[in-house]
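Below sits the subject:

***
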Amino acid sequence: MTKKICILGSTGSVGTQALEVIEQNPILCVYSLVARKNTTLLEEQARRFSPKIVCIYEKSCYMDIKNRLADTNITVLCGEEGIKEAIDGSDTVLSAIVGIAGLLPTVYAIEQKKQIALANKETMVAAGSIVTRLANENNVAILPVDSEHSAIFQSLQGMQEKSEIQRLILTASGGPFFGKSIEELSAITPEMALCHPNWSMGKRITIDSATLANKGLEVMEAMWLFSVPLSSIKVVVHPQSIIHSLVEYRDGAMIAELGVPDMKIPIAYALTYPNRMPLRGKKLDLTDASLSFFKPDIETFSALPVAFEAAKSGGVSPAIFNGADEEAVALFLEGRIPFLEIAHILAKAVADAPHIETPTLSDIIDADEWARHYVRTLVL
């Protein structure tokens, strides 16, 4: 039976790789494609995969993509209502929209009882309690796409009871600046920070990997995805990115998932679970592999401990951290703040933010807007 896939964020890094995966598996088909504003690439994807629906979020781009696809039978939609219609007829929704913008579409997909392949970590970071409750109420499976969370998910297969888990161990590559001092990081440019040694990713996640803010976001996501306390999650630096994460069980055994750094592997597993599909590409040769592990340098890369503090505070603090980070990364990429200022801004935002213990979705959206305004005010 063919599985109809809706890709939220089809023109981004995860979305484009997901289409490569779908092209290799005849039981997967593209039902709908959703993009923000890249009409050129969206047209190419639509002509290649012939989805039933294409949706562009930016209404100013609607006539452009509609005219581009006027000679096809594809339904062209736009805006939030268009996204909902793109979700409605699908079986599985790949949530790969970058940032907090992915939250509400993912919530809608859960409410429509769609299986979720989750690449948008901000959904769980900002609204983990709400999203997990909705998923349980609607009997919806949330399958992780992030390589680290997919590795944990795979390593948990066969577990009988949650009490068997001792802790989750998230691996971090360390990014392009692993081993560098604070002094060496003072002159980092956006071009330097965008050169990740192992992974090909979007700009924001690449910068977040360089600051280790991304690992902090992944810790928050793991708490909700796997229902474990913060105290049961550990981060280790593994520069080779071969072991993508581990589960330590109460008897001392550790189970890990290993492979080459290729996002198509966790994408494929989420889209075809519980089955696996053959994938073209390089395979891991253990005879060529070298594994090393280090404690993260939380003094130099201080965004990571700030993330742990936000996770410990709970409420809207994770949303504040995420919103402030999105804004700070954008400012860094624009050349308006230095690299090290990103972590300083995150610490200030989390410390100064109003606290709401049990937030609603509206509270979370407001907290995100507060964080962005706060960061812009700091930089003025």
In short: The mean pLDDT is 96. The domain at 3-144 is CATH 3.40.50.720 (Rossmann fold). The longest strand covers residues 28-35.
